Amino acid sequence: MSYASYVIAAYAVFATVLLWDFVAPRIRIAQIMRAVRMLARREAARGTAATAAPELKR
Question: What separation in angstroms does the CA of 1 have from each of 10, 39, 40, 57?
């Protein structure tokens, strides 16, 4: 009896999980960084609009 198919499948599952454990946090970090950049842009635009408004009233 040969366990070659079992061993190959086990290594394939292990490699897949190991790869996912490597990639998943990087995907999440990229999503969070994108959200932070978008928030910073919105805050900067809001701050610019707020400071520009008093100048327009003069």
Answer: 17, 61, 62, 88
User: pTM for this structure?
Assistant: 0.62
CB atoms within 10 A of CB 12: 10
Task: Output the DSSP codes for 6-48.
Answer: HHHHHHHHHHHHHHHHHHHHHHHHHHHHHHHHHHHHHHHHHHH
pLDDT 10s digits, 32-57:
999 999 999 999 999 865 555 555 55
The number of folded domains in the chain is 1
Cα 4 from Cα 1, distance rounded (Å): 9
Residue-range definition of the domain harbouring residue 32: 1-58
